[in-house]
Amino acid sequence: MILSANNQLTLQEFLNLPPGEGDITYELVDGQAIPKVSHTFFHSKLTRVLLYLIDQWCEGRGEIYPALAVVLTRRSKDWVPTPDLLYISNENLPADWDEDEACPVPPDLVIEIISPGQTFGQMAAKAKDYLDAKVLRVWVVDSKARSITVFYPDAAPQTYMGNELLTDSLFAGLEFSVEQVFEKAKIP
């Protein structure tokens, strides 16, 4: 790993790092390359189902990507998180953008699924960082609570559970219940 003189990676140094060993993905946080928590079976199943549901909805509107790094700013420092899923509209990133690099603009939606060893509080803090970086919505999926909490830049978070429909005027026409997600993922 290449480190600068002050032991902090610059954005360019981070982006130039070779890929991690095996399935390790790194995020740039406070100048450090931090390994992302490995996915579990339930985590992967939830990712697949949400990707499927949103992909069907976003045809012609934008794109949804799993594990795509995004270049943002966090507390006045470069930040490169790799959310579990991100959706970006064609208005924010033209449909003809075709670069093999991290997403260069804040996405419309970031979805983070809580992994073992992570807490809802940690994910809520990360959601605030995303919103401060101009991400429009953040969903935190909790497989233990069987819930999706939606974080907004201008309103209190809202938690959806059971058969309550998750809808949002920002994503007109996208609606499903949290229970549908968990049933389709076959999570007990």
Helix/strand layout:
Blueprint: H1 11-15, E1 26-29, E2 32-35, H2 41-57, E3 62-66, E4 72-74, E5 77-79, E6 85-89, E7 109-113, H3 120-132, E8 137-142, E9 147-151, E10 158-161, E11 165-166, E12 176-177, H4 178-184
Parallel strand pairs: 7-8
Antiparallel strand pairs: 1-2, 3-6, 4-5, 6-7, 8-9, 9-10, 11-12
Q: What is the average per-residue confidence, as pLDDT, rounded to a whole number?
A: 89
Oligomer, anyone?
single chain
Determine the structural class based on helices, strands and strand pairing: alpha+beta
Number of strands: 12
Query: Which word captures the global form?
Result: globular
The N- and C-terminal alpha carbons lie at a distance of 41 Å
Strand arrangement within the widest β-sheet reads 3-6-7-8-9-10
Tell me the number of helical segments per DSSP (H or I, 4 or more residues long). 4
Report the uncertain regions.
1-5
Largest sheet: 6 strands, mixed
Structure described in brief:
Helix content is 22%, strand content 26%. The chain is α+β, with helices and mostly antiparallel strands and 188 residues long.
Explained architecture:
It is built from 4 helices and 12 strands, in the order αββαβββββαβββββα. The protein has helices spanning 11-15, 41-57, 120-132, 178-184, and strands at residues 26-29, 32-35, 62-66, 72-74, 77-79, 85-89, 109-113, 137-142, 147-151, 158-161, 165-166, 176-177.
Task: Please describe the structure with a list of short key phrases separated by commas or semicolons.
188 residues; alpha+beta; six-stranded mixed sheet; two-stranded antiparallel sheet; 4 helices; globular; disordered N terminus
